[in-house]
Amino acid sequence: MNKYLENLYKIISNSFYFKILYLLVSLSYITLIFQMPIFKFLNKICLVWGALLFLINFIQIIMKKRKIYIYNIFLYIFLAVTLFFTIYKYPTTLNFKTWIINLLILTVIFSIDNYKTKKELIKEIDIYSYLYLAFTFISSTISIILLSLKLNIEKLIINADGVEELITFKGIFNNENAFGISAAISILISLYMISKARNSKLKTLLIINSIIQFIALIFSGGRSGYLALLSLAFIFAFIYIKNNIVRALLIILPILSLVFIFTLDSSTLHYIFTGREYIWIAAIRIIKFSFFSGIGTSNTIPTLIQNQPADLIGVTKGGIHNIYMEVTTTNGFIATFMLILFITSVIIYGTHIISKMKSREKITYTILLSILVAIPVINLMESSLVYIISFISLIYWFYAGHFISIMNIEKDRY
Predict the structure, then answer these.
(1) By 3-state DSSP, what share of the chain in percent is helix, strand and coil, each rounded to 5?
(2) Dist. CA 301–CA 338, nearest whole Å
(3) Nearest-CA neighbor of 217 among 251, 258, 188, 254?
(4) Nearest to 30 by CA among 222, 172, 190
(5) At 319, phi and psi to the nearest 5?
(6) Angle between helical axes of 176-196 and 391-410 (0-180°, round to 10)
(7) TM segments (predicted)?
(8) Highest mean pLDDT among 116-120, 161-165, 358-362
(9) Ranges of H-type helices in 63-152
(10) 160: Cβ–Cβ under 8 A, 6 or more apart, which residues?
(11) What does DSSP assign to residue 380?
(12) Tens digits of per-residue pLDDT, 351-403?
């Protein structure tokens, strides 16, 4: 009996199994299988399991088995600030639920496992990656076939508001953004696995998947996914070009390009951002009056609609479509600053270590780092890093934790 309980505890306390299960559940939610009862049940299992893992991690910190790093501190400040304002400014049930989701994301899904070896960490990344690649290979292939044959799947569902809604799927995906982003991330993960693969047959399969995902990205019609490919090019250029002037230009030019884009006329902006610019204008109006505290999740959508400069298409489902504006609007600038500090510190740390590496290993970790650049960049057009548990947030926080853990091991070699 004791041995059985011990084995059960080993499974429950291993957050990797939890992360694998949650990835499967989150991927189901972006495809037509999302309403199957099994996935709703598994989602509840994941929430309970996540709560248990939070308690286990907390005990491990007290027992000093798990270290606290500067990255954790940024996230703890984020959680502390958002909890403070939730209690004192907007204490509603929805806001507390949202905070608990963030707690789960930032303390369980994201974890720096300093007690694991490099071999263990890489093995976990490989399993996680192959699971994601298998799912996207199947789902993207089916979607490409359906779209090529001009076959549309429509389904009548009951949405979160209890209202009947007719969904037209993009292939088998709920929407074009999920289709495009899942394909783009799959390309990056495929390239990461190709850089490590020694088996020629496996490498061929990964190359085929990359081609399929690129076709899927084109078929999706979504634009956010292309930002992932630009991020890959950017991080390779930044790491492999040693000239500091060129590196500075690589940072400055994208910022200047953004400034230039927003000087364009309204019709061009609408073509580029497909209505997101109206949501951002409404969000800026709110931010001006609640810069430090935000207004809380429960107030965000209603207040955005009240401050609308035009019809806010997609705001009820996709939020503000910019995670940095979303956090500032919802929980204030301090929370946004902590999130940006975390993202930039991971990128700077990774760039510093990887720049010292040589040959094949350098390529592999550069691609891995590109995933941690791509997802925050995609979130300039989406709101999928915090507040919700989506396949995008799960992938980012999983890879971030494992990447930092590996870099902590690698730094002793350089």
Answers:
(1) 75, 5, 20
(2) 23
(3) 188
(4) 172
(5) 70, -145
(6) 20
(7) 16-35, 41-62, 69-90, 96-115, 127-149, 178-195, 202-219, 225-241, 248-273, 332-351, 363-381, 387-409
(8) 116-120
(9) 70-88, 93-104, 118-148
(10) none
(11) T
(12) 999 998 888 889 999 999 999 999 999 999 988 899 999 999 999 999 999 99
Tell the residue number behind the tokens 């430090």, with chain if given.
292
Closest by Cα among 216, 86, 173 to 391: 173
Task: At 329, list the tokens.
Answer: 């609007």
- The whole-angstrom separation of Cα 231 and Cα 371 is 8
Q: What is the pLDDT of residues 328-350, one digit of tens each?
A: 999 999 999 999 999 999 999 99
* Residue 326 to residue 385: CA distance in whole angstroms: 10
Look up residue 43 and give its two tokens.
């989602």
For residues 361 and 59, what is the distance between their CA atoms, to the nearest angstrom? 35
Residue with the two structure tokens 């609408």? 270
Whether the full predicted model's pTM is greater than 0.90, yes or no, is yes
Calpha distance 276→7 (Å, rounded)? 50
Token couple for 291? 């810069």
E strands of 112-188, at which residues?
Answer: 154-158, 164-168
Closest CA to 294 of 320, 326, 328, 325: 328
What residues contact residue 185 under an 8 Å CB cut-off, 6+ apart?
Answer: 132, 136, 228, 371, 374, 375, 392, 395
Angstrom distances, CA of residue 100 to CA of 353, 355, 381: 34, 37, 24
Domains contained in the chain, number? 1
In DSSP terms, which residues pair with 158 in a beta bridge? 164
Query: Which sign, positive or negative, has the C-alpha torsion 313, 317, 321, 324?
Result: positive
DSSP class of 208: H
> How many residues appear in the chain?
414
